[in-house]
Structures are given as structure tokens and as C-alpha cells.
Design goal:
single chain, 218 residues, alpha+beta, Glutaredoxin, five-stranded mixed beta sheet, 9 helices, 53% helix, globular
């Protein structure tokens, strides 16, 4: 083999080595792709637009409920949740998020009514009306959007603004945002509770109050 050929081969070999080294350095210095975990999560447990109905401050434990206004279990638990809110007043933040189940004919209508009321500062008022009247409209296969409109009237809402909000696709999109977050967080049914970012697995009511007692130091 002649000297020029040897020199060429050596040069090519050096170039290949340098290219491989550059590739290795690039791979080693590439930023790691974030992997969702229990703390970061694929979806937030709360968002800036989540409905905080009890606010005890940033340092207080936060209880989040994903609910469906037509869900019988949610309706049955509603008085108990209200008692819990009273018992832990000033000690916890309580946040409500929508999770309208597809099998409930009026669950989306109810959530949209609540969101439309929220735009006028009456989310909690509509929340109460929907659960207090659930037996009148729940588990039926006809729309009760008109009934929910009468609740808005009773709350003294600007009805033109309410009607516009109900008709606005952005209102349903806001409800669906909660639903999608819930699915990504592992919610499959209602009611589902999260305490300080962790999903609670409840087999009895005392599991919830025990978790709250532990979180608040009661």
C-alpha cells in the first residue's frame, strides 16, 4: 500500500472517530425528556381557573373533588361534604372540578349551567341548587337545561349573559378541561377526591376525615 493511500485511510479513520465522539457528546449532553410522575403529573390536580369555594390560604391542605352533578353518589354525599366543609372551615382549601359522566344525560348541561353561573360569581349558588334538586331532574333522558336556567334566574343572574355563556363553546370546553385532567389523573368515577395532590382511595367516610385530620393536625 502506497504512503498516500495509507495517509488517506488514516485521515478517514480519524474523521470517523471524531464524528462518533461528537455524536456521543451530543447524546450525553441532551436534556432529559421529562417523565410524568406522581408529583409533576400528566395533568394538574388544580388549575388557576379551578373553583375554590373554601380558601384557607396557600399553606393549608387542599381537598379537590371531581364531581358529576347528576351522580347519585355525589348527591348522597353532598350533605356530608357540606358538613365536612363546616367542620374544617378555615383549615382546608376546598376545590370543585367537573367530571360529567357520559352515561348521565344532563350531567354536561348541569356543569355548563354551573360554569355559566361562575362567570357571574355564582358558582357556589348554582352548585347548591343543582344538588338540592338532583332528584327532580337526575337520571332522566330529556334535557333539563331550561330548568337550570330558572335556577340562574332565581340567583339573580344577568340572563342575557347567562344564555350567551351557555351557548358559547368555550364554556363547555372549560368543563371538558376538568374532565380531561381528571382522566389523566386516574379518575374513572365520581366522587373522586385528592388531598394535597394525592388521590384518596376511600372505602368508608372515615377514610376521608382521617386523612383530613392527619393533614390538618387535628
Amino acid at each position: 500500500m502506497t504512503t498516500p493511500v495509507k495517509a488517506t485511510l488514516i485521515s478517514l479513520a480519524l474523521i470517523i472517530v471524531l464524528v462518533i465522539a461528537a455524536i456521543i457528546v451530543t447524546i450525553l449532553n441532551r436534556p432529559a425528556t421529562p417523565v410524568p410522575d406522581g408529583s409533576a403529573g400528566a395533568a394538574p390536580v388544580t388549575r388557576a381557573n379551578s373553583h375554590v369555594v373554601d380558601n384557607a390560604g396557600e399553606d393549608a391542605p387542599t381537598l379537590v373533588e371531581f364531581l358529576d352533578f347528576e351522580c347519585e353518589a355525589c348527591g348522597s354525599l353532598y350533605p356530608t361534604v357540606e358538613q365536612i366543609r363546616a367542620d374544617y372551615e378555615g383549615k382546608i382549601n376546598y376545590v370543585i372540578r367537573y367530571f360529567p359522566l357520559p352515561g348521565h344525560f344532563n350531567s354536561m348541561n348541569a356543569a355548563i349551567a354551573a360554569e355559566a353561573a361562575a362567570q357571574q360569581g355564582e358558582f357556589e349558588g348554582m352548585y347548591h341548587r343543582l344538588f338540592e334538586t338532583q332528584t327532580q331532574w337526575g337520571e332522566q333522558q330529556v334535557s333539563h337545561a331550561d330548568l337550570f336556567r330558572t335556577f340562574a334566574e332565581d340567583l339573580g343572574l344577568d340572563m342575557d349573559a347567562y344564555d350567551a355563556a351557555v351557548a358559547d363553546p368555550a364554556t363547555q370546553a372549560r368543563v371538558e378541561e376538568d374532565f380531561n385532567d381528571g382522566q389523566n389523573l386516574g379518575v374513572s368515577g365520581t366522587p373522586s377526591f385528592f388531598l394535597s395532590g394525592q388521590k384518596l382511595e376511600l372505602s368508608q367516610l372515615t377514610d376521608l376525615t382521617d386523612a383530613l385530620d392527619a393533614a390538618t393536625g387535628r
